[in-house]
Amino acid sequence: MKLNNHSINRVLIVGGTHGNELTGVYLVKLFQQHPELIHRATFESLTLLANPQAIKAGRRYIDKDLNRSFLEENLEDGTLVNYEDLLAKNINHIYGQNGKYPVDFIVDLHSTTSNMGVTVLLDDDQKFNLQLAAYLSSLHPEIKIYSSGSSGRGKHGLRSRAKFAIGIEVGAIPQGVVNADLFLKTQTIVYATLDYLELYNQNKLPTFSQSFTLYKYLEKIDYPRNEHGEITAMIHPHIQYKDYQALNPSDPMFLTFDGQTITYAGESPAYPIFLNEAAYYEQSTAMCLTQKHQMTI
Amino acid sequence: MKLNNHSINRVLIVGGTHGNELTGVYLVKLFQQHPELIHRATFESLTLLANPQAIKAGRRYIDKDLNRSFLEENLEDGTLVNYEDLLAKNINHIYGQNGKYPVDFIVDLHSTTSNMGVTVLLDDDQKFNLQLAAYLSSLHPEIKIYSSGSSGRGKHGLRSRAKFAIGIEVGAIPQGVVNADLFLKTQTIVYATLDYLELYNQNKLPTFSQSFTLYKYLEKIDYPRNEHGEITAMIHPHIQYKDYQALNPSDPMFLTFDGQTITYAGESPAYPIFLNEAAYYEQSTAMCLTQKHQMTI
């Protein structure tokens, strides 16, 4: 079951793309201390703590979101000199396709304050990434697969620098906190991914189900806000922590600070994720709505 | 049942002592828009968003923790000119006992990433505060009462500026997030506190149980760290989210990043709280151990 003629020669495992998402930071530090954990025979495994200043400061970013800084035209714009703009250019010069050590695959480690369990993030519908998602899903049926493809997000992200990539998004975890259970689960999925790439290179992939559930980005929903841009409502208690559960027409969605319920005005069920993600208050996003698809590759 | 001869004349409700603890921030904003909610006949209710710059930045503090900036000698030290040092002096000049509008009682609203439910924080063993705690506990048996008295923390805190005070600490909530359920529960305890002060002033306090469970500060426990001061372990999954539950000798306490379990070496049970509080990683605190006491006033 060889998927194409290209082997995976170099893999980059990234933590700290957001400096206050500590799961990836400490997992990458562990891999740096124990490189044998990520060593595989058929490819080179590299690690990167992507935003060192943000990690040190315990913040998502210093000047702007690093994971929104990789648009091709931004990387070529010499006038962009914010910390993260410079960092993105540097990462691209090292690991990008025209860089010093171009990488074939990136695993990018994130955490969220939303109750998204272990989610594999896909930025596009490349068959290679979908096949990997199917494999991970067959091994670990409890994980969720989310495609942000139609949001356009993929082009801005660090993962755009490799030929193929996945993100691993785990939660609910507060910013600035390591949760042992989700640390171990992330570690398991990283190893399963590396094993997959190894088997792929060796042309030894086992048979696995080509069918899985895919949550596709539909739209983002902002909080209700007043004329000063301040939020006037919270995620309704009825849906808090209920990422990936159906939100039906007329279901409670927000609760205003003075006690009024705002319901979902959509005409068909949607599946909200990133419900109450801390970093998205400033990005006009109370949740992302997705559609649930049964995929067969 | 008059406890002393002094009435409560002025009450200050404080949110945003830590700028990324949004429960208090949005509750105080609500009270500022709807002062009728906190109006009571026998005293004046004031509100304060304590650290405006930190709230704007979405961070705990700008230069230093405001809630560690109220030590008497610091307030008198003209050379201390960090943002929070100046803020503390300003708050003291307005609301302190020699200030423009001295307050008799402070309710200080906090949130934590630890699973502490609704906790009433006491900084000392003044009978007035203990009586209030007993009242709140009799009305809402699910809340926890914690005394930080023996830690010395009270002297540094904003609440030290009033004659009497409580903190309300709710969790688990990530920094930078409002959780509707805990917002509503905090609101309920604020109203119950104001009602108590009103009944006290009117000498109309009902009979209530003078007995409650008090968790008293014992010691803080740091994370295991390497020679560079970096943490080498996480809160063990066995005790994560188990604030206020007995930690017995030899119980798992930490899990190192490379998979080793570290057990509790104490000789008698303790009750950990502030388990995995994000803000305490930099304060050398993985948890605070408490002792559980049955109090009868």
TrEMBL record, chains A, B:
- Enzymatic reactions: an N-acyl-L-aspartate + H2O = a carboxylate + L-aspartate
Q: Which residues form the Succinylglutamate desuccinylase/Aspartoacylase catalytic domain?
A: 8-196
Q: Where does substrate bind?
A: R60, N67, R68, E169, Y280
Report the protein name in the record.
Probable aspartoacylase
**Keyword line:** Hydrolase, Metal-binding, Zinc
Coiled-coil spans in chain: none
Cofactor annotation remark: Binds 1 zinc ion per subunit.
Cofactor names from the entry are:
Zn(2+)
Query: EC?
Result: 3.5.1.15
A family per Pfam = AstE_AspA_hybrid
Is Cell membrane given among the entry's keywords? no
